[in-house]
């Protein structure tokens, strides 16, 4: 077991195998095995949407609740480990999770038939529509403001020291903006189908 848990890829594969086993066993015991219908396909994309969203918002919260506040406490000689190793890896997963969350969310809305109604904020779809619009703003911020500025701040793109400092501040403030936006976004996403509005 420790060999599996020492590898992220093996751990993820084992989790997927465990999920399949649970679904097959529960389906067999309950007498209702999974049927690959449009309803199940919609559910699969919803599950992927939630999973990707957890990674995206989880990393957003990691940056804002852990990394940014901790940086002043880290000795200068240890900061390169964050800037050269941890932050670039976290930002890779952060930006791709944002994109995957948006894409899977759009697929869910399309499969469920409410994509147009949500985007145009039609009655009955206002909450999810607001949540979708906020999420799109947040994803735009990730790809077109945070990431380009983080590349400068982390030295991936070489710029003058003043530009590096300015880029770090812009990235931080935009990340904080996304943290602020995540609160109503998550509420609206949940409120639509769970009685929150």
Tell me about this structure.
This protein is 82% helix and 0% strand. By secondary structure, the chain is mostly helical. The model has no long low-confidence stretch (mean pLDDT 95).
In brief:
With 197 residues, this protein is mainly alpha-helical. It contains seven helices and no strands.
Helix/strand-derived category reads mainly alpha
How much of the sequence lies in strands comes to under 5%
Give the CA-based shape: flat
Number of domains: 2
Which spans of ≥5 residues are poorly predicted at pLDDT below 50? none
Mean pLDDT across the residues is: 95
Helix content: over 70%
Number of helices: 7
| End-to-end Cα distance | 46 Å
Number of strands: 0
Strand count, sense and barrel status of the largest sheet are: none
Question: What is the rounded Rg?
Answer: 20 Å
Order of helices and strands: HHHHHHH
């Amino acid at each position: 077991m420790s060999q599996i848990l020492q590898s992220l890829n093996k751990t993820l594969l084992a989790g997927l195998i465990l999920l399949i086993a649970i679904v097959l066993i529960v389906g067999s015991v309950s007498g209702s095995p999974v049927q690959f219908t449009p309803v199940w396909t919609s559910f699969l994309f919803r599950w992927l949407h939630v999973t990707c969203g957890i990674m995206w918002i989880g990393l957003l919260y990691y940056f804002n609740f852990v990394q940014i506040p901790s940086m002043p406490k880290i000795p200068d000689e240890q900061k390169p480990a964050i800037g050269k190793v941890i932050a670039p890896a976290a930002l890779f997963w952060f930006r791709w999770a944002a994109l995957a969350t948006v894409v899977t969310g759009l697929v869910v809305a399309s499969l469920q038939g409410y994509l147009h109604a949500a985007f145009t904020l039609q009655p009955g779809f206002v909450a999810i529509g607001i949540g979708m619009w906020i999420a799109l703003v947040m994803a735009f911020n990730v790809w077109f403001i945070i990431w380009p500025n983080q590349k400068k701040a982390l030295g991936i793109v070489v710029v003058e020291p003043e530009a590096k400092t300015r880029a770090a501040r812009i990235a931080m403030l935009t990340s904080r903006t996304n943290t602020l936006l995540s609160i109503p976004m998550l509420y609206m996403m949940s409120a639509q189908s769970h009685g929150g509005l």
